[in-house]
Amino acid sequence: MVNVVPGAAGAVPGVVIAAPGVPRCRARHHEPMPLTFLLIARLPEGGAEAFDAYEDAVLPLLAEYGGRLERRVRSLDDGTEVHLVGFPGEQEFEAYRNDPRRAEHAHLLERSGAAVELLPVRDLTSRNPPSGR
């Protein structure tokens, strides 16, 4: 079951997090568990410019929290953008989400009209290594 959490603490309006029980730590050592998220942004026609301005303002903040943008791609029609983002743990992710500088730029996200979904994901590459094509 997936819990959809609109308006969670530190959330930016328009962002929905689908979190089916994100692991908080490794059971044996109580170490923070690295988190990876897939962000899917659906951009209406004409929304890409405001969305880019928002991303230009908030993506540089990732590094302050140990976050990393592993991949950022956009469809050829500018209607969908996808990010693969990682954090060392939940504490760093929450600190990034609660950074007031993100809220200062939320008007740009709202103006873009983007519908954003954030999904916790896990890497399956080891199950099917890249073919090298």
Give a written overview of the molecule.
This protein has 133 residues and is of the alpha+beta class. It has a domain of 89 residues: 2-Layer Sandwich (Alpha-Beta Plaits), CATH 3.30.70. Helices cover 23% and strands 28% of the residues. The protein is built from 4 helices and 6 strands, in the order βββαββαααβ. The chain has a 6-stranded mixed beta sheet. A hairpin with an 8-residue loop joins strand 1 and strand 2. Helix 1 runs antiparallel to helix 4. The longest helix has 11 residues. The radius of gyration is 15 Å and the shape is flat. The N terminus is likely disordered.
CATH architecture of the domain at 33-121: 2-Layer Sandwich
Low-confidence stretches: 1-10
Main β sheet profile: 6 strands, mixed
Question: Helical segment tally?
Answer: 4
Mean pLDDT, to the nearest integer, reads: 84
Which outline best applies? flat
Give the helices and strands as they follow along the chain.
EEEHEEHHHE
Spatial strand order of the main sheet: 1-2-6-3-5-4
Determine the CATH topology of the domain at 33-121.
Alpha-Beta Plaits
- The first-to-last residue Cα distance is 36 Å
CATH class of the domain at 33-121: Alpha Beta
Helix content class: 10-25%
Oligomer description: single chain
Question: Structural class from helices and strands?
Answer: alpha+beta
Protein name: DUF1330 domain-containing protein
